[in-house]
Amino acid sequence: MTQNVAIVGLGLIGGSLGLALKRSKQDIHIIGFDRSYATADEAYRRGIIDSIAPSAKSACEKADVIIFATPVNTTAVLLEEASLWDFKDRVIISDTGSTKKPIMEAAKVLTDKGLTFIGGHPMAGSHKSGISAAKEHLFENAYYILTPHEGASSEQINQLSNLLQPTKGKIVVLNADEHDRMTAIVSHFPHIIASSLVGRLADQEKQQPFVKKLAAGGFRDLTRIASADPTMWRDITMQNREELLIQLDGWLQEMESIRTLIFENDPELIFRFFEDAKKFRDRLPSTSEGALQGALYMTFDLHIDIPDHPGVISEITKILADEQISITNIRIVETRTDVYGILVISFQNTDDRKAARAVLSRTTDYSMHIL
Ligand SMILES: NC(=O)C1=CN([C@@H]2O[C@H](COP(=O)(O)OP(=O)(O)OC[C@H]3O[C@@H](n4cnc5c(N)ncnc54)[C@H](O)[C@@H]3O)[C@@H](O)[C@H]2O)C=CC1
Ligand SMILES: O=C(O)C(=O)Cc1ccc(O)cc1
């Protein structure tokens, strides 16, 4: 029997979810709604959805499964409005929001009426937003967290998990409190730090106009996420305010002890500060071949040591194109000597990266690394 799935909000996450569900073996009809008609139209033209609904209400009333993929404050408002909608009896309602406690709270208007709400958060994404950035493989190898309302049965949780299988995400069930505490640590607070580092640069650029040009390498890596959508991050910050304040207090204490460390200038203690961080960082689950995506950032990079002569990049891209291996990004990160540089090629998933490594080892002498 055809399962009607409604996706409300067809941006990066709703669009990527639609693309992933399209490869499902189940018989699925995706009804999409976005407040921007141009976005819904693009989703339809790209085959991400099967039909466009005239309103969120109309999409949801026809659906067996509903996924809200709107910014979290909007999702809370829509859930409130949805208390007046006429749902199918056995509907499962979910979302993709980066926060869970306030969403579960907002969903109470529905669960109090006996409807099933299972919060969702695919923990992969990008600093890019909008349907144009949507990718079928976005959630592959990433955690996909579910926070079921206590009234949800294991059968309903399984039904949603089965539907989400084509995302190739790893489904994990957590409670909303745990979810919001952990995402504050690894995602929401780091985001605030990234934006504040950019703010510090912007402030000091007035006195040091050249400094912007020096902001390469580490600074760019550390602050990439500050280019993300401000509406989305405003909503997350407002909704996870309590956990963020706890993180901020801890950080202020940490900064105080770092201040003492620098003031006292003891080489051994300074060394230990960096050494402890390095040891812990190096032990974080890596994105290397086959391993589950442990951190939030989805990159499947292959680092290739290449000689610095014209034509090398086109030689490599040609080899990959001949094998029909798609690349998502290509850059030179560093020139270590004047003879070698490091070319970093990003792929959509581990399989493509594995295939690229295999073909390049057969056809070139360049050494390759996965960090
Ligand atoms: N961007 C990311 O990396 C990740 C985002 N999320 C969460 O997923 C949700 C969606 O995020 P993105 O897709 O990145 O945002 P986005 O900005 O790419 O897409 C949001 C879409 O919702 C639409 N929209 C806004 N208000 C609406 C309304 N009232 N009715 C219907 N459509 C409406 C917008 O037009 C837009 O197309 C957010 O809750 C976010 O916290 C979760 C994981 C990763
Ligand atoms: O840009 C990145 O890599 C991210 O940090 C993506 C991201 C943003 C929000 C989430 O809730 C989950 C993942």
Brief summary:
This protein has helices at 12-21, 37-45, 56-61, 72-82, 101-106, 108-111, 154-164, 176-205, 211-214, 217-223, 230-239, 241-264, 267-283, 312-322, 350-363; strands at 3-8, 28-33, 51-52, 65-68, 92-95, 116-122, 143-148, 170-173, 300-307, 329-334, 340-347, 368-369. By secondary structure, it is an alpha/beta fold.
Give a description of the structure.
The chain is an alpha/beta fold. The protein has 3 domains: 3-174, NAD(P)-binding Rossmann-like Domain (Rossmann fold, 3-Layer(aba) Sandwich), CATH 3.40.50.720; 179-264, 6-phosphogluconate dehydrogenase C-terminal like domain (6-phosphogluconate dehydrogenase C-terminal fold, Orthogonal Bundle), CATH 1.10.3660; 300-369, VC0802-like. 47% of the residues lie in helices and 17% in strands. It is built from 15 helices and 12 strands. It has helices at residues 12-21, 37-45, 56-61, 72-82, 101-106, 108-111, 154-164, 176-205, 211-214, 217-223, 230-239, 241-264, 267-283, 312-322, 350-363; strands spanning 3-8, 28-33, 51-52, 65-68, 92-95, 116-122, 143-148, 170-173, 300-307, 329-334, 340-347, 368-369. The strands form 2 sheets. It has an 8-stranded mixed beta sheet with strand order 3-2-1-4-5-6-7-8. Helix 1 (12-21) links the parallel strand 1 (3-8) and strand 2. Helix 8 (176-205) packs across helix 12 (241-264). The longest helix is centred in the middle third of the chain and has 30 residues, at 176-205. The protein is globular and about 65 Å long. The two termini are 45 Å apart. The model is unreliable at 335-339 (pLDDT under 50). 3-(4-hydroxy-phenyl)pyruvic acid binds next to loops. It comes from Sporosarcina thermotolerans. One of its GO terms (biological process) is tyrosine biosynthetic process. Residues 301-371 form the ACT domain. Residues 3-292 form the Prephenate/arogenate dehydrogenase domain. Pfam families: ACT, PDH_C, PDH_N.
